[in-house]
């Protein structure tokens, strides 16, 4: 179970970093970086990602545990 927790945490961090860098890319592509600093947009996207994960944590845990329950 510890290994699965580490894999889940690594996946959580990787998606958070993707949200950060993708939001910065969209900010530059849409030319919003002329108005707003792109790092601020990246931080807001990560905060939105954390909020989304927090609000849907039951569904995420069920989806993560579904393949494991078949093995037990």
- How can the largest sheet be summarized? none
Q: How many strands in all?
A: 0
- Integer average pLDDT: 87
As a whole number of angstroms, the C-alpha radius of gyration is 16 Å
Task: Work out the count of structural domains.
Answer: 1
Shape: elongated
- The N- to C-terminal Cα distance equals 12 Å
Uncertain spans, ≥5 residues at pLDDT below 50?
none
Q: How many distinct helices? A: 3
Oligomeric composition of the shown chains: single chain
Q: What are the secondary-structure elements, in order, as H or E?
A: HHH
Percent helix among the residues? over 70%
Percent of sequence in beta strands:
under 5%
Structural class: mainly alpha
Structure description:
This protein has three helices and no strands. By secondary structure, the protein is mostly helical. The model has no long low-confidence stretch (mean pLDDT 87).
Structure summarized in a few sentences:
This protein has helices at 2-29, 38-55, 57-71.
Topology:
Elements: H1 2-29, H2 38-55, H3 57-71
Helix pairs in contact: 1-2
List keywords for this structure.
single chain; 3 helices; 72 residues; mainly alpha
């Amino acid at each position: 179970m510890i290994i699965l927790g580490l894999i889940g945490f690594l996946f959580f961090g990787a998606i958070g970093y993707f949200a950060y860098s993708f939001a910065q890319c969209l900010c530059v592509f849409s030319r919003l970086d002329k108005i707003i600093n792109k790092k601020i947009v990246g931080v807001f996207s990560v905060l939105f990602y954390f909020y989304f994960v927090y609000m849907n944590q039951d569904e995420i845990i069920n989806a993560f545990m579904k393949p494991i329950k078949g093995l037990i």
